[in-house]
Amino acid sequence: MLLRRLLGDALRRQRLHQERTLRDVSADARVSLGYLSEIERGQKEASSELLASICEALGVNLSQVLREVSDELASHEIAAGAPALVPVGSQSAEHNAIGEGAATKVVGNVVGMAQAANRDVVAAA
């Protein structure tokens, strides 16, 4: 599952939930309609600045969208039987599996970084 596809799906769900058009959101986000459409379809990877702009146009937090994407990606990985994250430098199989608490902490750190990036973009605007 491609991350850009999951991001596009999440953005499209937000837009459709608000009953807004691509034209409306693209104008508010200051991005071309065609490019926004390609992002929603998972054909283009948006920069963090562009994602923040699109989220601002939708009135949602970037961290909220990334959390939704992270949860969906985790579901796909579990369904596919993906192995657990292995900490680099671990010495035995007993120490290879990462606990649920540690995984939650990692996701929390990623969300925290997204929130900080969102604040930086908003402050720069």
Query: What name goes with the CATH superfamily?
Result: lambda repressor-like DNA-binding domains
CATH architecture: Orthogonal Bundle
Overall SS class: mainly alpha
SSE order = HHHHHH
Strand content: under 5%
Which class in CATH terms? Mainly Alpha
Taking the sheet with the most strands, its summary is: none
How many strands in all?
A: 0
| Poorly predicted residue ranges | 92-100
Instruction: Count helical runs.
Output: 6
CATH topology: 434 Repressor (Amino-terminal Domain)
Fraction of residues in H or I helices? 55-70%
- What separation lies between the terminal Cα atoms? 33 Å
User: Could you say which overall geometry the principal axes of the C-alpha atoms support?
Assistant: elongated
What is the gyration radius calculated from CA atoms?
17 Å
Number of individual domains: 1
Please characterize this protein's 3D structure.
With 125 residues, the chain is mostly helical. The protein has a single domain (3-124), classed as lambda repressor-like DNA-binding domains (434 Repressor (Amino-terminal Domain)), CATH 1.10.260. It is built from 6 helices and no strands. The protein has helices at 3-17, 22-29, 33-40, 48-58, 62-79, 100-124. Helix 1 crosses helix 5 (62-79), helix 2 crosses helix 4 (48-58) and helix 5 (62-79) runs antiparallel to helix 6 (100-124). The longest helix is centred in the C-terminal third of the chain and has 25 residues, at 100-124.
